[in-house]
């Protein structure tokens, strides 16, 4: 198992450098001067422009800029925005809010998605199975912003169950946006687990276990469900990173001060260091979540460790 984990760790190295360099090149290799763009119509002297370009390494070749940025990342320095703010401070302020939102959505996705998938898979063709299939199809078909506004109107305003804006109400503030953020993913997770479980319940090894006289709960829990969870765990692991990046729309609808609003502002104002810093943090989260998935994959199916 140790060798398997070490091999997966080594595989994350080129992914990290490749993804961060691609983002860095897309932000800083575009034509135009970001310092001049930030100044807008206001006059800026050539001397000041040169000092600022030198401060942000904009006079260096792209590879040298990237090398200096990565060296700073490994020492905990994510750089400075063009307005003088430390990117690390921006992340420290905004990131916990988005992380709480993504984790809330992730828990909702696991609880509702897996429960619905198991019930539908065990009762194939029943009313519960048809209800799960129809409801998940409907959820997937509705755009996130429409679902968000409907949830605000019905659950927040009409029923008054949950807050509809901001984070002043504490953890309750994250429930409604967390559900909206998780809606599409939990629908996919439920359908994926339902299909996988139905296929495994028909497999020969399940019939063999049943013919040996094992209890149905043991056959389902120890054999069919364990194998059925492998593709679902892969999906969930990748989805946590996607949620962190995809919270931009949900944060905008529910007025949540996370990194979604910050990265939208940074892109619109050409704040390259802020965009690259936030995306670098998201890349690290995505890599770590996939690494955890790979380890769980090896635990659930030992054959994978030796491939």
The N- and C-terminal alpha carbons lie at a distance of 12 Å
Structural class by secondary-structure content: mainly alpha
Shape call? flat
Largest sheet: none
Number of helices: 12
Spell out the helices and strands N to C. Answer: HHHHHHHHHHHH
Q: Calculate Rg over CA atoms.
A: 24 Å
Total beta strands = 0
Any low-confidence stretches, pLDDT <50, length ≥5?
none
Beta-strand portion reads under 5%
Mean of residue pLDDT values:
84
Helix content: over 70%
Descriptive account of the structure:
With 307 residues, the protein is an all-alpha fold. The chain has helices spanning 2-28, 34-39, 46-55, 62-74, 87-122, 127-141, 144-158, 175-201, 204-211, 216-253, 259-268, 272-300. It contains twelve helices and no strands. Helix 5 (87-122) runs parallel beside helix 12 (272-300), helix 6 (127-141) crosses helix 8 and helix 8 (175-201) runs antiparallel to helix 10. 29% of the residues are buried. The mean pLDDT is 84.
Short recap of the structure:
The protein is an all-alpha fold and 307 residues long. The protein contains 12 helices and no strands. 76% of the residues lie in helices and 0% in strands.
List the helices and strands and how they pair.
Blueprint: H1 2-28, H2 34-39, H3 46-55, H4 62-74, H5 87-122, H6 127-141, H7 144-158, H8 175-201, H9 204-211, H10 216-253, H11 259-268, H12 272-300
Helix pairs in contact: 1-12, 5-6, 5-8, 5-10, 5-12, 6-8, 7-8, 8-10, 9-10, 10-11, 10-12, 11-12
